Amino acid sequence: MDRKEVVLQFFRENWKFWLSVCLAVAFFITAVTVYMYKEEKRVTEPITVKYEDSTNSEKMKKALGVDTGTSREITRQIERIHDGDVRPVVTYTVEAPTVEAAATETAKAIEEGDARLPAPALEQTDRTVVTPNTDKQTVDVYKINLRNNHKIKAGLLSADGKTYLGAGYQAGRWEGMVYTRDGRQIDAGSITYTIKQW
């Protein structure tokens, strides 16, 4: 028997096993898709956070469901906004009896996609944080994108008069690259970490 006949005979004899494997994989993919859809919907709903908690990385970590590094980076950016280093993209007025009520109203309007809100407030992002600032009588809306920290890279490396084609992947601050001359074997590699971003 040739190789093709052996493979076909193997599948004929074990078709029940392979059918159950295919069904299990299909069930798993369906379950993961449903879970991701529900989790995405839950995560993208606006979260109302106290003004003083918006610069506390531990409280923001818990409220947003992100890791410690991401939480620190988010609170650092919010601190820059509080200090006046970053101007708001847009401002608008909401009538409400209290600032807290305005924050609740704003969060509800964002969740419902109310067309009366400015376009940046309705923009789809990974997280939306609404904070009432009682001192200034304002409601701040922070739109946070987390997904843009995964990147696929390509490049060239020249060493000792030879040119290498490179491919890599970056996740957050970590980046890995592999280089090849002929496309058959890896000739070099590198791993880097971004110490500071601005």
Structural class: alpha+beta
| Average residue pLDDT | 84
- Helix and strand string, N-terminal first? HHEHHHHEEEEEE
How is the main sheet built? Answer: 4 strands, antiparallel
Question: Which oligomeric form is depicted?
Answer: single chain
How would you describe the overall organization of this protein?
The chain has 198 residues and is an alpha+beta fold. It has 3 domains: 3-43; 45-145, no CATH class; 148-193, no CATH class. The protein is built from 6 helices and 7 strands. The protein has helices at 3-13, 15-44, 57-64, 68-82, 99-112, 119-122; strands at 47-48, 127-133, 138-144, 150-159, 162-171, 174-180, 188-193. The chain has a 4-stranded antiparallel β-sheet with strand order 4-5-6-7, with no helix packed on it. The protein has a 3-stranded mixed β-sheet with strand order 1-2-3, covered by helices on one side. A hairpin with a 7-residue loop joins strand 6 (174-180) and strand 7 (188-193). Helix 3 packs across helix 4 (68-82). The radius of gyration is 25 Å and the shape is flat.
